[in-house]
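[Automated response] Your request has been received and processed.

Submitted sequence:
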Amino acid sequence: MNVFAGCFTEDGEKALQNDCSQLPGTLWTVPLDITSQKSVDNCFAFVSQILKERESKLWALVNNAGFLAVYGPMDWIGIEEYEQSVGVNLLGAIRMTKKFTQLIKTSKGRIVTMISASGRLHGFYTAPYVAAKFGLEGYVDNLRLEMKPFGIKVSIIEPGAFKTTLMNPDAMIRRVESVWSKLSEDIRDEYGNDFKDNYIQSFNAGTSLVANRNIDIVTDAYIHALCAKHPKARYICGWDAKYIFIPMSFMPSTWQDFLLQLMMNITSGSKLPAALMNNNTLSINNNPPHCPPAPC
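Generated structure:
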């Protein structure tokens, strides 16, 4: 298989070239920043030139770039964090798709987009990431409808938690500490160090509990989406996505909230902000919410 790989850094380019040096097929690496239209245009020109020289067509576009914007409660998050998450996770994929769709039309090929189970279900302290992924789900669903008359098959990959660099516990700690250090004293006092530490513990405990080590599940989904005669519209990857998060996405909102709170309690126990604790507000640990009634 011949592959064009867009790489954000020179180190990434070199590492990929080394890793793939013994594999069959040809790999072309090209510098790419999907948040920059100029970079996307340069990538398109590079790919188009190679295709012209080889009298070939582009079979597929894989939107794989992602940025895990997990920082904490909304009070901690500035507009710049939302802009960064939306810029990479949503607009970057749209920018690439708009640019390369004309090439895919000539081959009647595939467009495959990595999204996440977070594009189907919300969660604690993940607003920038979830907002971008929900938006991308909607965009690709529309894309699938509109590309069908052109013979292009569009697939979404929705993984749960996998043990990749995006879910690295040390990286998570650095992200939270970086944001915490920039907060005003009033916000830090309102939440308190115990809340921050509990949040980090809860995230890492949850990741350790459900994150899958078998990345082949995701790569197999890619291969099927690219090569199968009848690819799926959606590939749900990982036991947590398949049996917990995606099924929860079909439940009433009150049930979703209840189960998400329950999972938070299981991983490390719910911790209220310091200001609420100091005001003698009843904690969720001591007074667990009642299961909501079944919908009418």
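Summary generated for your ticket: The chain has one domain: 61-278. DSSP finds ten helices and six strands in the chain.
If you did not submit this request, please reply to this message.
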